[in-house]
Amino acid sequence: MKKSAKKYESIFSVAPMMEWTDRHCRVFHRLLARKARLYTEMLTTGAVIHGARDRLLGFSDVEHPVALQLGGSNPVDLATSAKIGEDFGYDEINLNVGCPSDRVKDGRFGACLMAEPDVVAETVNAMKRAVSIPVTVKCRIGIDNQDPETGLDTFARKVNDAGVDALIVHARKAWLQGLSPKENRDIPPLDYDRVYRLKASLPDLPIIVNGGIGGISEAKQHLAHADGVMLGRAAYHEPRLLLKVDTELFGEAAPYATMKRALEAMIPYIEDQLAGGARLHSITRHLVGAFHGVPGGRAFRRYLAENAVKADAGVDILREAIALVDELPAYSVNVDSSGSERAAHSARTIRTSTAKLATSA
To answer: Is a pLDDT exceeding 60 seen at residue 361?
Structure first.
């Protein structure tokens, strides 16, 4: 088994979310939080092994640290996919053992694997032998009628013995019978204490808590009991809260004083992507929540909804939408004063690292 180069650390991360956390979204989130760990959407082993890899796996160097989330249960296929991900430059391989959709269940991956801890342990062991980067697992506290006390402990101990570098636990059960994937995000009650007890019982295994965390102040409370926190929908629907991450969780300067400045720093990336054949809407769809709760935010969303979808939409559409917003600074102090220089450097880095992807964008 290959050993990771150093102990796994992830105080704050943005969750992998299907159809949301693509590379456009991740570049945006990186501009807002330099210290956050980012995740891809889940990719099946079949897609990674047989699909168009540059299109599926390509990412910008500015996204680091960034993890590849895989879906599957075959140890050979997962080891092969993990090695492909490592060769692409990803910083972590994460196995999805939490998604409750029917498609995932029918393919024998996702949350249904909570019932097969030996299988998950075998896949973790295979991936650890194949790569030198951390291998992690994202799971639920249980499924259906499983007892979360005994079931989660058994699951965690087996993957820990297999060498997993960290366990990310969504603090809800997944009901594979009777609830839709959407309902599984809200209806099963949250049980953060169960995750805390797991951490207490496995003090040497990094445990990251996920599920229903609404902001940075809540994240700070969880860090008293767990090694890290992962935000999902809150970070996506209200990305402005990510501007607080570096300052409040890491004690470092915030990247930008306002969301307006962050979006302006995004423009060189958007211009490069449009030049490579991308549609403006494929990028701006991730920005619509940028001014949630800010005067002019509704006008910003409406303007993008009406205009970014047009076939000839260019970056001026975003500039015009931004001009509709009346935004106060997120911080009055402790803001990185080198923002403009850093934004220019980021733009140059993005141009270099995405050049090979232009034809497949």
So the answer is: no
Residues with Cβ within 8 Å of residue 302, at least 6 apart in sequence: none
Residue 264 host element (H or E) = helix 259-275
pLDDT tier for residue 99 given thresholds of 50, 70 and 90:
confident
Place of tokens 């979204």: 25
pLDDT, tens digit (0-9, with 9 covering 90-100), for 43-63: 999 999 999 999 999 999 999
> Annotated catalytic residue: which of 25, 99, 112, 139?
99
What is the Cα–Cα distance from 161 to 73, expressed in whole angstroms? Answer: 18
Residue 89 CB neighbours (<10 A)? 16
What angle, 0 to 180 degrees and rounded to 10, lies between the N-to-C axes of helices 23-32 and 259-275?
A: 150
Q: Mark whether 139 is an active-site residue.
A: no
Which residue type does 145 have? N
The burial class, CB within 10 Å (0-12 / 13-18 / 19+), for 233 is: middle
User: Could you tell me the pTM of the whole model?
Assistant: 0.89
